[in-house]
Design brief:
Elements lengths: L2 H6 L4 E2 L3 E5 L5 H8 L2 H4 L10 H17 L4 E6 L4 E12 L4 E8 L8 H15 L5 E7 L3 H9 L3 E12 L2 E11 H10 L1
Parallel strand pairs: 5-6
Antiparallel strand pairs: 1-2, 2-3, 3-4, 4-5, 6-8, 7-8
Length: 192
């Protein structure tokens, strides 16, 4: 299994409210609108996008990575309007260990509506059913209660806290680690 091979042919997913698809240059205004929000950027390793040029550089990097299978970012598009409201991603992976890490960020206007869970469920299902992963994990700052709830809704178990493991925005932060294994995924689906 090579994640890169599958990402070169990145599939599109549709849910009741969302379409997950490749990011495009035409998404600049939508992505800038939430990446320029300090509340969205606060828990992230990247800084607030102060200009469209910064967002455009991000989009260019992701789009150029699709061809090589190096980009695992899906645009989260709101079906009702066609607006991109966030990004869901495989942000890190290890082919030998059959493991990926999920990440996401979402427009503040859409927080608390189950959208991140709806989007990430598609990536978890894809990871286990098509990529034959053994493990999918997620991480969040200890104060990011919203992300912790998302991971629990995905069936992930809390594994522990990495103490002061990342230097983000001028401070060392603790990170909570969650995961779900392939062997847990089927039984979890049956209980949902």
């Amino acid at each position: 299994m090579e994640v890169e091979k599958y990402l070169k042919e990145m599939p599109e997913f549709k849910t009741e409210r969302l379409t997950l698809r490749k990011l495009a240059s035409s998404d600049l205004e939508d992505v800038f609108s939430f990446c320029s929000n300090p509340k969205v950027a606060h828990p992230m390793t990247w800084e607030v996008n102060e200009s469209r040029e910064v967002t455009n550089e991000f989009l260019h990097m992701v789009i150029s990575g699709y061809e090589k299978g190096e980009s695992g970012e899906w645009a989260i598009e709101w079906n009702e309007t066609g607006q991109v409201i966030g990004v869901a991603a495989f942000i890190d992976w290890n082919n030998k260990h059959k493991c990926v890490e999920l990440g996401y960020f979402l427009s503040e206007d859409y927080w608390g509506r189950g959208i991140a869970t709806e989007a990430l469920q598609e990536l978890v299902h894809y990871g286990f059913s098509k990529l034959y992963l053994n493990r999918i994990e997620g991480r969040s700052d200890t104060d990011n209660i919203g992300s912790q709830k998302v991971m629990k809704k995905l069936g992930m178990e809390y594994e522990g806290t990495l103490r002061k493991n990342e230097f983000i925005k001028g401070e060392f932060r603790d990170t909570e680690v969650y995961s779900i294994l392939e062997s847990e995924y089927g039984p979890f689906l049956n209980n949902v």
